[in-house]
Amino acid sequence: MIHTPLCDLLEIRHPVVLGGMASGTSVPLVAAVSNAGGLGTLGVSTIPPGDLPGIMAAIREGTGKPFGVNFLLFMVTGEGFAAALEAAPPIMAFAWPRAEQDLADYFDRSREAGCKVMFSAGSVPGALRAKAAGADVIVAQGTDGGGHVGWMASMALLPMVVDAVAPTPVLAAGGFADGRGLAAALALGAQGVLLGTRFLATVESPLHQNMKQAIVDSDGHDTVLTEIPDLARDRVWPGAMARARRNAFIARWAGREWDLRANQAEAAAGLLRAAEEGDVDNASLPYGQDAGLIHDIPPAGDIVTRIVEEAEEVLSKRLPGFVRNG
Ligand SMILES: Cc1cc2nc3c(=O)[nH]c(=O)nc-3n(C[C@H](O)[C@H](O)[C@H](O)COP(=O)(O)O)c2cc1C
After folding, report:
1. I need a labelling partner for 191 at 20 to 30 A (CA). Which of 2, 160, 166, 202 fits?
2. Is the CB of 173 under 6 A from ligand 1?
3. pLDDT tens track for 27-58
4. Phi and psi dihedrals of 308, rounded to 5?
């Protein structure tokens, strides 16, 4: 068993967290991860505020264990945040604030509601901003990961963030998909891992089966950092591009962003249609470089168990063999 102080803080058995992906999580996925002893987190940024109480109740029906909800701060609404506070999830997770937003206000109100506060940062300044505002846990999110990411790779970013925010516990995100990754993250100073892409290819993931299969089929070399899906959706992110599959949709608009702006509504409708139809060439398919480590579509709970068992093997059997006295 692998146990870090973060497990005590979050009251979880295993230091494995499901990233709260607005376009990649669901109640069954969150419940499955939490029930397996990890921390399930629901991305709630695109859920209508009125639906939140029912959805939180459904998570609580699905699991008696701790879970989190994730807000993209640049698009949070007062009504949505108030609904989440009312339901008081054990963990309130945040990412991607605008420069002028007051993090301490969101963090303080979350804590007053009884929630622990988690914040994802893709840079050391971003992590320090969250520490200054009082985050309980900071996620160091490397550019290797799927979805909206920063510019620093996990290997360098993670220990830099660990050093900068100590003693605040840090979770490693971006490119982690197996037990070797968890062992490496612990060696770099993290207290656990947060996974997005790995959990997209699971039985409980809400993605179309073709999208899950595309992740399994990927060799990890087929992603690109791009603004094209955001331009198509007419959504400007503060300081982020998205890592997504370099498919026909991206190729059609690359270098022709001016044309995409002129045809935005049509492009947005095309994206929606492609997502519904499972058209992996014409949908936006955000996933990380760690897709190259993903070879199956198992139940999410099996992923949690598998990761901790493999990390335990690496830490207790493989690595100690490399240490010699004298
Ligand atoms: C499809 C998708 C949607 C995401 N949506 C969010 C989100 O709404 N909020 C957030 O904080 N992070 C979001 N992320 C980032 C993840 O939380 C996590 O940091 C990232 O997936 C880690 O890298 P990995 O994909 O290599 O595991 C998203 C990632 C993906 C792949």
Report:
1. 202
2. yes
3. 999 999 999 999 999 999 999 999 999 999 99
4. -70, -35
The residue contributing the CA closest to ligand 1 atom 9 is 21
Mean pLDDT of all residues in 304-320: 97
- Specify whether the backbone of 109 is left (phi greater than 0), alpha (psi in -120 to 50) or beta: alpha
Query: Could you tell me if the CB of 286 is within 6 A of ligand 1?
Result: yes
167 CB-near residues (< 8 Å, 6+ apart)? none
Q: Which atom of ligand 1 is nearest to the CA of 93?
A: 11
Ligand 1 neighbourhood includes 147 CB (under 6 angstroms): yes
Q: Is 141 in the pocket of ligand 1 (CB under 6 A)?
A: yes
Tell me which residue range forms the domain holding 148. 5-206+296-322
Q: How far apart are CA 258 and CA 40, in angstroms?
A: 39
Q: Is residue 118 domain-resident?
A: yes
CATH number, domain containing residue 105: 3.20.20.70
CA nearest neighbour of 289 among 209, 196, 179: 196
72 lines ligand 1 (CB under 6 A): yes
134 and 152 assigned to the same domain: yes
Q: Which amino acid is at 147?
A: G
- Same-domain check for residues 192 and 174: yes
